[in-house]
## 1
Amino acid sequence: MWTLCNADGVEASPGARTRGIIGDPANPGGTDSPASRKNGKHVLKIGRLTETTLSQSFHPGRHVRPKKKAELEQVEGPGAPARHILAKDEVVVGRSREADVQIESEMMSRKHMLVRRVGPEFEYEDLDSKFGVYLNSVKAFAAVLRDGDVLQLGKVVFIFHEGG
Amino acid sequence: MSTFVRFWGTRGSIPTPGHKTRRYGGNTSCVEIRIDDSLFICDAGTGLRELGVHLLAREDKHLEAHLFFSHMHWDHIQGFPFFVPAYSPEAELHVYEAKEANERVVRLLQAQMSSEYFPVSFADLKSRIHFGAVTSDTSVDGVRIRAFEQIHPGKSFAYSFEKNGTKVVYATDNELDLSAKNRDTIATNPDERRILPKEFVRFCENADLLIADGQYTESEYLKKEGWGHARATTVVDLGLQSGAKQVAVFHHDPMHSDQDVEDKISICERRVIFSGSKMVVFGAREGMTLKL
Ligand SMILES: [Zn+2]
Ligand SMILES: [Zn+2]
């Protein structure tokens, strides 16, 4: 049977806050194995179970590494191979000089597709282009993009990478 | 004239959130069909909640929507109590069922909001809600709407929406396989074309988009015959026989990961290629919009 205990080996009382870190944050890489046996029970040390330790030292979401930006990897068409980082909240792909990703290619409309950031995700929308946008070979007007999706705009093909 | 179809929930039976289902989505049945300025919603699975949020963000003050229920199993109604427009006095909702459903929709939408299940009662919803039945001459804003009874425990109904030659069919929770005329020979040869009943083929005829329950693979179906859902490959045959331009395989099994759905669709694609047709078949995917 497993039981939770604090760094001093004192068993967590029922109802005590049990969310913690394995091992003692004050002794990183300490010699104590986080899991040991005590009175025949497996004991998992999870650090001091106080509100202060947790709130001062660790906060979910604060310690994530900087993320790689989402991008459109161009694998076919003029200029390929190329990587187009989606640095702005709205990125227009097309033949126009005003497009953020400008690609001179037949079957590409002047403003062909908009890629928009919505919270942590990206969506695309066909800007009423002449030849449409194909998502994984299906002509689709718009979609929420997922890692590895293949977008085809005429003879130009992109792979969407979520980043992160 | 413009027709847009967006999938808000494509999963069958129960929501399946998580990384394994990110591409096709975890919300249960809900499809938005927008024909010119009219808004039709097929089923109120959990996908309806997010559609409601979008509608409030993008619509003018007055929102009018027409909701159609295939049937009243959980995965087709659970989003309704979380559909924010239902709480807005500015919204007008027309709720439909097939005439043969005998007011089951009214009764069960109210029942799922009784106090034992949900804190707000149906009577407290502020929107104007009208109930109606789809008959043989139903038409809304010039869109002809028809219903067809399907094979499913407790019955379910397919709906077709048609205007100026553009047609969308929504046919989920339908064990099409049980209606095949050549069931005996299919059992020994799954590659054989399934001959489906003429009436239903005619109902689906020439759809620009056929959205149909294709929950199972061949081997899964063998273990789940009688559960009320079809093999994806049988949906392909329905599309081929009815002359559909595109088929969206819908109501994905809750056990299916994105990869499983993709494998199921690959088999469907091969079946189409083998038939010599150019019909498009794909897995219905949450957050995807088609323009017809
Ligand atoms: Zn269902
Ligand atoms: Zn059902």
Note: Chain A touches chain B at residues 123, 126, 135-144, 146, 149 (CB under 8 Å).
## 2
Amino acid sequence: MTANGGGPRTVSTSESSRSGSEFESDRSVSDEAPLGGPDASETILESRDLDVFYGDEQALQSISMEIPEQQVTALIGPSGCGKSTFLRSINRMNDLIDVARVEGDLRFHGKNVYDEDVDPVALRRKIGMVFQKPNPFPKSIFENVAYGLRVQGKDDGDVEGKVRTALERAALLDEVEDQLDSSGLDLSGGQQQRLCIARAIAPDPEVILMDEPASALDPVATSKIEDLVEELAEEYTVVIVTHNMQQAARISDKTAVFLTGGRLVEFDNTNKIFENPENERVEDYITGKFG
Amino acid sequence: MSTDTEPLDLSRDGNDVGTLGDTVARYVFFACAFVTVATTLAIIVVLVDGAVDFFSQVSFVEYFTGTNWSPRAADNPSFGVLPLIWGTLLITVGSALIAIPVGTLTAIYLSEYASPRVRKVVKPTLEILAGIPTIVYGFFALSFITPVLQTFFPGTGTFNAASGAIVVGIMILPMVSSLAEDAMSSVPDSLRNAAYGLGATKFEVSTNVVLPASLSGILAAYILAISRAIGETMAVTLAAGALPQITTNPLEEIQTMTAYMVEIGTGDASVGSIGYQSLFAIGLTLFVMTFLMNVFSMWVRSRYREEYQ
Ligand SMILES: Nc1ncnc2c1ncn2[C@@H]1O[C@H](COP(=O)(O)OP(=O)(O)OP(=O)(O)O)[C@@H](O)[C@H]1O
Ligand SMILES: [Mg+2]
């Protein structure tokens, strides 16, 4: 699908950040291993006893898990169990919600992103996000993809080349090549979502968070997004929330099952979760007995 | 429900209370709409009728190009409207220079930076400010703004354009900030989140996502505020004075079109005199100016309509 998909990726941790304090990374990996399984590749994200509250309501209860680098980790569970909340706590989008409060650690390359010296703006430059509903800017297709490059000060070199590469990786270039100047809002829903993915990968983050990226799309568009997610994992770490069991089984390497009350009840290799879950309630959930 | 002997009745008569209510309501609504439209038409007819009388005695050329407005000079009255238009222009541009930047920044602050608590207090306060009678603003200009100007610029007259422009600027400020804030807060959060998710700062989100996405509403706010400044009467009459002249010094006395109308309308011009008829010409000119501004505002709104869903 993508022409230049596979090559090794240079991770630019010292990339210039206009907002001042650079996100620090000291790639130390914790020695204790919470839920996660023995054969995990290098851990890039690790949550330790993470609690999230909205006002007095606790949405996440002591979540501990390790998310492996360059793999797809799926978060599944019934509605309201805190999947989106967990995803937003990774790149500190919860900061934007007035009543939200986070306790515990969320480590990125071993560094707690809730430490005083971490700038959420710098963090979000390394951890991109794709939302449930496609949300392109009311700007041209080109400017949509270029936006992240511009705010991150990466628009000095070959912007056009970077934009085209991102569109190509998002499997959208062929469809929009002749209309880069037309509005991103003129695209179909599925194209808009791929545009949003292109926008997220253009500045070359390390992690991409996706919150039900295909739930507003038809089956054809959905399967395109699924193919894309699998390909993205060759270069990026993908954490994806989905309501669709088959989707989680198809595209993810690891699956985390949250259940009502904001608890992580099981986190393991996807095969294991779907074929032989430890937890009875997980089995019930996966086989559709509730949820 | 309905049996064989009593078939379902869907005819009009079977339900005549509702039908009657509908009919009455329709006439009441129509009457209200009719009164509104008829009043507007009547105003236009009266203005045009008076203006026709005026222009049968004064040529268009003299009116629109003359630089001397002295309608009551006994021997040689002169009807060049430019000094009055100039006065109105000074006030309008001056007040816009104050209200647009301050109002826009206030709107950005309220929509993007202020906590919900602050917004809940400030926004209604602004709207109350918009409800203060304009004569009060005029009095405020005379008793406060002008003395302050006089301390800084000793030559400032008791009546001066600057004082009028400043007070009108303060007057239309709530309108700019309130309408612009409405436009900005109607930008969906999904767009803000998209930008934040890409590592944009709050300032970047405000300036290159929210502002462009709400541009049409913001421009419409500017235009409405400007047309309010053009039509503003009491405050400028009190603050800026009644001396029609084309001056580039804002500390001098001027007269706006509206202030002239107050002067004549409350003064001694006898019905049928040329001075009286000039009211209609000026009134029509003002009407056309504000009407064009409103049309322009509507055009801007549709031309730059927010495209996001
Ligand atoms: N902005 C918010 N303010 C207050 N409470 C919130 C907010 N967002 C989420 N919550 C609450 O937190 C809990 C978890 O919500 P969250 O959106 O994370 O669930 P979810 O697993 O993503 O659900 P879904 O599958 O429906 O998207 C819910 O009880 C929800 O009501
Ligand atoms: Mg959710």
Note: The pocket of adenosine-5'-triphosphate (ligand 1) is lined by residues A 54, 59, 77, 79-85, 97, 99 (CB under 6 Å).
